Amino acid sequence: MSDSPASLVWLITGCSSGLGRALASAALARGDRVAATARQPAALADLAAAYPDTCRTFALDVTDPAQVTAALAGTVAAFGRLDVLVNNAGYGLVGALEECSEAQIARNFEVNCFGALRVIRTALPQFRAQKGGHVICISAAAAIANYAGFSVYGAAKRALEGAAEALALEGRPFGLKVTLVQPGPFRTDFIARSLDRATTPLPDYEATSGKFARFLGTMDGKQPGDPARAAAAIIAAATADRPPLRLVLGPYATDKVRRTLTASQRELDAWAPVGGPTDFTAGT
Ligand SMILES: NC(=O)c1ccc[n+]([C@@H]2O[C@H](COP(=O)([O-])OP(=O)(O)OC[C@H]3O[C@@H](n4cnc5c(N)ncnc54)[C@H](OP(=O)(O)O)[C@@H]3O)[C@@H](O)[C@H]2O)c1
């Protein structure tokens, strides 16, 4: 891994608070040019004032295709190129699958998955024309292995990961890099402000999803992850010659990956004698 000293042009979604805000601030502080976006760009006025030459702000709700197009075009018009696109905008939905409404499920996928794919697809012609770029998606520990009570959120993040894995292969011929960031719990507005909750809690899920929802409540403000240190790690990946496909953030998520790999290996070994010999036998 070696760092490139070149100044980068970033577009980051969801910069009003949390990880997006920390990343925009850190990139600006190192001298990069940043298109900082938010649903309410007034929340970014201080960044624009502090970095008048290198920060542009755009209104961007990832569910609004016209805003996505305008933000991408505005970034290239202002800075001449786009080096790093960060799909950070997102929010959790806590509740068992049965407890969440159809509208809540659709909305969560629309923001966490389809919105991110929309932003990526809109940026791809620019990356192809430049013959390079870097797509970074903020995924979640729920996409490593999911929790009872996070079925929809984990599914949306894992769907995004599936598309991004393929994109990494599809974009390689024109120099595109792709990184999926898997954060553990970070101290942001994720629980207090951004978390949606199932509309119809059911007693049968009290010990699973209900317990998880209560646990999340106790974690607010106590998450061990520091957004500034997450931003530094993401910048290290963005400036590396060979960035990782997955960047796992924090001790919790790192341990979760290790435990998940071990459990998968054990299950594969235990069931390979059953699932393995399923090709046609020779001569058939
Ligand atoms: N913090 C954690 O523990 C954690 C762990 C794993 C993954 N993540 C992921 O990290 C990302 C950032 O979350 P965070 O922790 O920094 O929480 P946050 O402080 O609540 O920030 C979430 C950001 O997403 C924005 N957003 C929500 N819906 C949007 C939409 N439709 N269009 C554009 N922006 C939208 C919010 O904007 P508004 O201000 O307009 O609502 C806000 O700027 C999310 O994708 C989240 O799933 C967080």
From TrEMBL:
UniProt keyword Signal present: no
This protein's name: 3-oxoacyl-[acyl-carrier-protein] reductase FabG
Top EC category: oxidoreductase
Matches recorded under InterPro entries: NAD(P)-bd_dom_sf, SDR_fam, SDR_oxidoreductase
Organism in which the protein naturally occurs: Lacunisphaera limnophila
Molecular function terms, GO-annotated: 3-oxoacyl-[acyl-carrier-protein] reductase (NADPH) activity
Lineage of the organism: Bacteria, Pseudomonadati, Verrucomicrobiota, Opitutia, Opitutales
Name of the gene encoding the protein in the UniProt record: fabG_8
Keyword annotations: Oxidoreductase
Protein family according to the UniProt entry: Belongs to the short-chain dehydrogenases/reductases (SDR) family.
NCBIfam families from the UniProt entry: PRK06180.1
EC assignment: 1.1.1.100
Superkingdom classification of source: Bacteria
UniProt-listed SUPFAM superfamilies: NAD(P)-binding Rossmann-fold domains
